[in-house]
Amino acid sequence: MKILTTVDIPEPEKRIDFSSKILCLGSCFADSMGEQLKMYGFDCLVNPFGTLYNICSVFNSLMRLGAVSGLLRSSDNPLFSKEDVFLRPDGKFVTWSHHSRCGVRQTDGTAEDFLKKANEDLKAAADFFCKADTVVITLGTSYVFKLKGTEFVVSNCHKFPAKDFERVFVPSEDTKEMILQILGMFPQKRFVFTVSPIRHLADGAHGNNLSKSALLLAVDGALKEPGGTSSPCNLEYFPSYEIMMDELRDYRWYGEDMVHPSEAAVKYIFERFSDSFISEDCKEKMQMNLKQWKASNHLIR
């Protein structure tokens, strides 16, 4: 008896193996998937700027990584400058391009200390990106926050008052255009896009559905370029959102906040990713690596 709706996942042209270098960018779910890849021993860098919730922040981060690595030409200095650094209300030095977890507390260092660390991390991430063959991008929301009086989309509001920002909905066509620009800028990279299954209920249930729908339409539109029939050769899609909504459609698969997938749900979705995108030849070594990871983290009794 069939007790769930299984989401079909198209067969990828090439599967990931232990020779792959993988960059994961995007929402909290990018962190979750990236940590799973690292647990199983894959060469993976996860969110070097911290969590990025929207396509604009992902796009800007890739532009900066591309410029620092030399993959893109830029007339501007792509490194962070002292003008980029400011102090959050809670006493952390940050930039508008970083998540708060990347900040340095005022009690632990100065703005110069943070700037030095931010640029060292940027150069290391750019070096990894230059060598990476696969980029997994998780889109979380179609809503962005712009600094009032500018067109700059912040990666994080950093606990500043809502009056300092303009909240804007990014239409699916604009998201699609940014995806296509990314593919065109880095044709040598393989991009796997997915839409995060994490619900953004701060937007309301209706707003969350509109937001996710716009992201799904954007990725689907990009997949069907050019001419509406053929897929760009360096773009693939993994249906993590659909798996959560259709295969795991029960609150027992959510955490206590009823918003984030539970640990079991993350593992299930990663298993589906592994079955489709990771080479079968890797499976035995993956289990050995997982045992070693658990032992090194004192998780084996």
Number of helices: 8
List the helices and strands in order: EHEHEEEHEEEHEHEHHH
Q: What are the segments in which pLDDT stays under 50 over at least 5 consecutive residues?
A: none
Level of helix content? 25-40%
Overall residue-averaged pLDDT value: 93
The major pleated sheet works out as: 5 strands, parallel
Please state the second-level CATH architecture of one domain: 3-Layer(aba) Sandwich
Order of strands across the biggest sheet?
2-1-6-9-10
Shape: globular
Determine the strand fraction and express it as a percent band: 5-15%
CATH topology call of one domain: Rossmann fold
Ends apart, CA distance between termini? 37 Å
Q: CATH class of one domain, please?
A: Alpha Beta
What's the CATH superfamily of one domain, by name?
SGNH hydrolase
Cα gyration radius (Å): 19 Å
Number of strands: 10
Based on secondary structure, the structural category is alpha/beta
